[in-house]
Amino acid sequence: MKQYEQLDKLIADHDGIVQTSQVVAEGISKPVFYDYIKEKKLEQVAHGVYASADAWIDTLYLIHLRSKQAVFSHETALFLRDLTDREPAPYSITVKTGYNPNRLKADGVQVYTVKPDLHGVGCTTAQTSFGHTVPVYDNEVNISA
Known about the structure:
The protein is of the alpha+beta class. It has helices spanning about 5-15, 20-25, 30-40, 60-65, 75-80, 100-105; strands at about 15-20, 45, 50, 70, 90-95, 110-115, 125, 135. The termini are far apart.
């Protein structure tokens, strides 16, 4: 299979969104990938994350891709758990103390911090409305940091 065909399949398998790290893991070099981006007119939606023009952007999944340690919390967790019907604005995440959330804050994400040893307590997963799995705090979590 040619590399461009591999890239077409990779993008199709991931609903039109692909990360540079996924491409490199498939054995495709960055220069080939960047030529493909130009040719196919992919849009850079975050650092190292590209989307095809016809892809629906799942904002919650995109936040997860941008910050792997972020766990959706507060109103956003309620929304993901179907405990409210209002989509939160802004989205809320919790990260470990010491993480630099400036880029996420600049994009309008509400960022909370918690001690590193408490960060994983009550962490589970939920599905976004687009069907992507993202980390979220459980309904019963009550942490006093």
